[in-house]
Amino acid sequence: MSESSLVLDEVASRDLGKIIEVSTLRWSEQPNLLWVLVRTSTGAVGLGETYYVPSAVEGVIHDLAVPLLLDRPAGAIRQAWNTLFSCANFFGYAGAEMRAISAIDIALWDAFGRATGLPLYQLLGGACRDDIAVYNTCVNAGPHRDWDLALEDPAELAGQLHALGYLGMKVWPWDRFAPQIEARGSTGPAGWTAMGPSGSYLAPRDLATGLAMLESARGAVGDGLELIVEGHSRWDLNMAIRIARAVEPLDVLWMEDICQPDSPEDLSRLVRETKVPQAVSERLISRFPFRDVLARQAAHVVLVDVAWTGGLSEARRIAELAETYHLPFTPHDCTGPVTALANLHLARAMPNCLAVEVVRGFLEGFYRDVLDFSFDVRAGRLALPPGPGLGASLLPDFAERTGVTVRTSS
Ligand SMILES: [Mg+2]
């Protein structure tokens, strides 16, 4: 019997108590984020998180999830997931319902870890590696103006990331040429810049302008830094194929969401008509659409968002599904610090994790204003904090901070 099995057998005999209280927390300075605290009768408190339209997710948690969770066993994580999913699925599950399930699932795993004194990667099966390579998604955040730099001097940005040891840089060279929509304000969900319909025509000169960003970065660092192309689903299938064929000579690590990810048949055609590896997609919710994509050989890399797709429970199932097809997975994070932590536990526990996404401006910026742990990229890699569960908590004063609102059900 393995050491891991012995640990889990010993854990299984413990009384993990019942769920007695669920709180949601929102912070005006990060209006897209929602945190969840699940308190158990044994005193453990688990932390979860999700992102996007938090007022809707908050409603799902308190109106739908809490009545199904209170007084239930805190350690019955799979049963909780199945119960919540079966109810959410009755009305069409993707959206706020799955983000609510995701946040609760992460919190239940964290509470499990805290109650047992074990880190989540151990409870997920144990460590396959000590730390994990990261790549930078180039947004303006915290001390870094990475998107401005990508537009103005991509060679300089690539040089910076290469010097720090990052595995790669992710940019979206063609979003600016796609149809744009206007929203009042810039920080709330409606102002999210990735929103917008898919375009049906990308002019050759605009294709070349976007390509120049990648070529400049490649020229600066050669093959010392991987290039990753984000599409935010801003193009229809014909233009996706046009872009992919233009990118082929640059040998990018992958291209993601260059068209909508909702059709396995269309993704399969994209895969057949270009040599560029295709990553699919943090926008797929639950294992079921991933099953359809992988069965049609329509992806090379599986992108998963722990805080959207169904929590650590579902992300692990998706990672294992990818492994079944001899494919890597990579967790998405352009959102929040708890998601980043959960990603690291999953990455440590799963053998087929390729790399973890980070936004260095978040790691060095507001993530430090939320958690009692500072993410520190060293030689392009991230390690976990020691300690049980996620290994970090909300800062002690977080709930009392100006601009933070708390809603509790018990
Ligand atoms: Mg993406």
Describe, in plain words, how this protein is organized in 3D.
With 410 residues, the chain is α/β, with parallel strands linked by helices. Helices cover 40% and strands 16% of the residues. The two termini are 41 Å apart. The relative contact order is 0.15. The structure holds magnesium ion (MG). Magnesium ion (MG) binds next to loops.
Topology:
Elements: H1 3-12, E1 19-27, E2 33-40, E3 45-51, H2 54-69, H3 77-89, H4 96-116, H5 120-123, E4 132-137, E5 140-141, E6 144-145, H6 146-152, H7 154-163, E7 168-171, H8 204-221, E8 226-230, H9 237-247, E9 254-256, H10 264-273, E10 278-280, H11 287-295, E11 301-304, H12 306-309, H13 311-324, E12 329-331, H14 337-349, E13 356-358, H15 360-363, E14 381-382, E15 404-409
Parallel strand pairs: 4-7, 4-13, 7-8, 8-9, 9-10, 10-11, 11-12
Antiparallel strand pairs: 1-2, 1-15, 2-3, 4-14, 5-6
This protein binds magnesium ion.
Magnesium ion binds at residues 230, 256-257, 282.
